[in-house]
Amino acid sequence: MVTMTEVQTLEFRIVRQVKTDPPLTFTVEMRYSPEDKGYIADCYEMDAFAWGETPEEAIENLLDVMLGFAEVMVEDLKEYPNLRDPRLPY
Asked: What is the pTM (predicted TM-score) of this model?
């Protein structure tokens, strides 16, 4: 089972990475998949998910996916500035 501390750590790392004010927050849903014999972590706000043998591994893998997505978005914004979301501070 994922503890609140682990979820807060994930949120802190994301907030620190994107550096927004107010901070962006993400909801992570964790569930056990008997077919895969592992845990799936979903972040619906970013349409991202990751798998792991333990809840901690699933969270770490999800963090890697989310940070990779953010890195690609930053690079895309440099090349295509019209992709900026007017609701977000830059």
From this structure: 0.61
